[in-house]
Specification:
Elements (H helix, E strand, L loop, with lengths): L1 E7 L9 H13 L5 E5 L7 H10 L4 E6 L6 H17 L4 E4 L7 H23 L2
Parallel strand pairs: 1-2, 1-3, 3-4
Length: 130
């Protein structure tokens, strides 16, 4: 069974994770047979090892970690790579791979561009009504 982990930075404000929780809920709706977990690099819980352990305990023998970052910066290149190396050492029979950061995907960038242009339009419409 393959599991999916949404991996994000984390923040002090607990409301920061609300969009990530909504993304997880959407994934569960469209792929109910796929176990989905959220994990954080810093501040928030669960961290990546705890989320991975939970999915492995639930029967996952392969994990796909999707970094919810705009780019492949140090957190993805170094921190995530080190966390995955630790997981692979503890679970040599489990396939664990990371996807590129979501911001590296052209489809995600297209969706962000549409959002930005819509925000600009809304601002223009609001200015016109003043």
């Amino acid at each position: 069974m393959r599991g999916l982990i949404l991996f994000a930075h984390g923040a002090r404000d607990p409301r920061w994770s609300e969009p990530l929780d909504r993304l997880r809920e959407r994934l569960v709706e469209v792929a109910p047979a796929t176990p989905v977990a959220v994990a954080y690099l810093d501040i928030m819980e669960p961290d990546l090892p705890a989320a991975a352990e939970r999915l492995i305990a639930a029967g996952c023998d392969a994990l796909c970690i999707v970094p919810i970052f705009l780019g492949q910066g140090g957190h993805v290149r170094r921190d995530l790579a080190a966390l995955i190396a630790g997981l692979l050492a503890r679970h040599p029979g489990i396939e664990i791979r990371a996807a590129p950061a979501v911001g590296e995907d052209n489809g995600v960038l297209d969706a962000l561009a549409v959002y930005c242009l819509a925000a600009l339009e809304r601002q223009g419409a609001a200015s016109a009504t003043r």
